[in-house]
Design brief:
Elements (H helix, E strand, L loop, with lengths): L2 H29 L5 H28 L7 E3 L1 H13 L6 E4 L7 E3 L1 H18 L3 E9 L2 E8 L6 H4 L11 H12 L8 E6 L5 E7 L1
Parallel strand pairs: 2-4
Antiparallel strand pairs: 1-3, 4-5, 5-7, 6-7
Length: about 210
């Protein structure tokens, strides 16, 4: 028996089942009186998070199996917009500011980078940030993308790479590192760096060659 293939199939089915649960939860939220929404929203939020983790596992499996995640010309402003929209639905009180110029261009897999940005924006919101700032610039042959926020920032352990199971680490950052590593080219490594802003808050810098 090919256990890797079996695990991949189970995870893929789990992702689909969780998507159905999320859909049912959203329909339930629309159907019940407003006074019950506060009891339903935590369940729906956790289910969305587990569904996102399942999607990441499927993508990780495909990456390890050398799935077809080819790069192409892409526009970071559009990628960031799509990622922001995914998170804004769950955190309507968080301001997500996309400051990326529409003419800024990169060469990457749009699907993978959108998932990475969604993770980072979601992590900032979960950590307590009320404002999240997205920026990007072309620096020589590199594309540099930054996700910054006004939250509590990273701990010293997180900055040194000692991730624990909290809202800013665990599988999310590990998943993002694999995505960024996937965009490395011969002799030119892609990277993800964590730092804290001088004025307070976290900053994640993605560099794609």
């Amino acid at each position: 028996m090919n256990f890797e293939a079996l695990a991949g199939a189970i995870i893929h089915d789990l992702k689909n089942q969780l998507q159905s649960v999320v859909g049912e939860g959203e329909r339930m939220l629309d159907a019940v009186p407003a006074e019950y929404h506060d009891q339903i929203r935590p369940f729906l939020s956790r289910t969305r998070r587990v569904h996102q983790d399942a999607m990441q596992l499927v993508t990780l499996y495909r990456l390890t199996q050398r799935g077809n995640f080819s790069s192409d010309d892409a526009w970071p402003a559009d990628t960031a917009n799509h990622a922001s929209e995914c998170v804004a639905v769950h955190y309507p009180d968080v301001r997500i500011m996309n400051n990326i110029d529409a003419d800024c261009q990169g060469f990457y897999n749009d699907f993978l980078l959108q998932m990475a940005l969604t993770n980072l924006i979601n992590n900032s919101a979960q950590a307590g940030a009320s404002e999240i700032y997205l920026s990007a610039e072309e620096s020589g042959a590199d594309l540099i993308i930054r996700v910054e926020d006004n939250g509590p920032g990273f701990s010293e352990a997180q900055l040194s790479g000692e991730f624990s199971d909290d809202s800013r680490s665990g599988m999310g950052l590990y998943f993002n590192k694999l995505i960024i590593k996937h965009h490395s080219r011969p002799g030119r490594a892609a990277s993800m760096e964590l730092s804290n802003r001088p004025e307070g808050g976290a900053c994640v810098t993605l560099t794609l060659p």
